[in-house]
Design goal:
The protein is α/β, with parallel strands linked by helices. Helix content is 41%, strand content 13%. The radius of gyration is 19 Å and the shape is globular. The structure holds adenosine monophosphate (AMP), zinc ion and fe (iii) ion (2 copies).
Length: 290
């Protein structure tokens, strides 16, 4: 069989995507992909369903996650691939994050109410599709009820950091996240480095050196929002530090930004060899542990 292409960064209704895990697996197969990774934000709740649908229809699904880590000035997301989804430490750490979210979400609703906006937490839960609830779901409700004219306006006026209904989110440090990803046999990869808010190449290289010490194995080089120059730089950094190069579209099932699974805005075509590299990395022992 000829090698198909892959998409290693996807969201489902288990976090803030629009398709259920089964739907996205079927969609990927219809689109002619060879494998996908499901990488929901801070949760593995969609993985059992996604994996079993993959088995049912004969399509390779990689159990993954995308974890938000403490970082400034931008944001740091860490991907984990080939996780053991039944690993006790992984499950305990993610349950802790879910409890923190359960405390945060009603506070966002309360802040919106105090601004005179008629939004209940229950309405927000309803649009979330049964998965983890977060700010994108608040944005959807604000849009539906006509308080804003776009999803983005909801963030800009109310939900983003510094806006009046913002409530901070509990995050793990990169070191903590890398620890439990590795403990759960996951291969840890730094997602979309261009959101870190770093000033250039040297700062990113310093950060990578630190993260590699803490268990990082790869860099998400291929991503729709990366410029050609960024991709070139990330490739050099990955090669220099022995990091795997992964990629994905970060598809959420929202067509408004013209992005589709597997191809991004048409420019992406990632080889299955990336999956083989990840598998090989998974069976290699960690170089340093602390
Ligand atoms: P939460 O985990 O509840 O804080 O929500 C985080 C998600 O909200 C991210 O994954 C983005 O999809 C979305 N998001 C965060 N900041 C913004 C922003 N400034 N504009 C639009 N969407 C955003
Ligand atoms: Zn998302
Ligand atoms: Fe991300
Ligand atoms: Fe993502």
């Amino acid at each position: 069989m000829a090698m198909g292409h892959v998409d290693l960064h996807l969201h489902t209704t288990a976090s803030d995507g629009v398709m259920s895990p089964s739907e996205i697996v079927r969609y990927a197969k219809v689109k002619g992909l060879q494998a996908i990774a499901i990488t929901d934000h801070d949760t593995i709740e969609g993985l059992e369903e996604g994996l079993s649908e993959g088995e049912r229809i004969g399509f390779e699904v990689i159990p993954g996650i995308e974890i938000s880590a403490v970082h400034s000035p931008g944001s740091m997301h860490l991907l984990g691939f080939f996780l053991d989804i039944y690993h006790p430490l992984l499950n305990e750490r993610l349950e802790y994050l879910q409890r923190a979210r359960a405390e945060r979400n009603p506070k966002i609703a309360e802040k919106l109410n105090r601004l005179g906006i008629d939004v209940t937490y229950e309405e927000v839960v309803k649009v979330s599709g049964g998965g983890q609830v977060g700010r994108p779901h608040f944005a959807q409700v604000l849009l539906k009820k006509g308080y804003v004219r776009s999803f983005q306006e909801a963030f800009d006026r109310f939900l983003k950091k510094g806006a009046p209904a913002y409530v901070d989110k509990l995050r793990f440090t990169a070191k903590e996240a890398l620890h439990f990803i590795n403990e759960a046999k996951g291969v840890a990869v730094l997602a979309h480095p261009n959101t870190l808010g770093l000033k250039g190449y040297a700062e990113l290289e310093n950060l990578l050196l630190q993260l590699v010490e803490e268990g990082l194995k790869g860099l998400e080089v291929y991503y729709p929002e990366h410029s050609a120059l960024e991709v070139a730089q990330y490739r050099i950094l990955a090669e220099r530090h022995g990091l795997l190069m992964t990629g994905g579209t970060d598809y959420h099932g929202i067509e408004k930004n013209g992005l589709d699974i597997g191809v991004g805005r048409g420019e992406m075509r990632l080889s299955y060899s990336i999956v083989e590299d990840l598998k090989a990395a998974r069976s290699r022992p960690l170089q340093s542990r602390r």
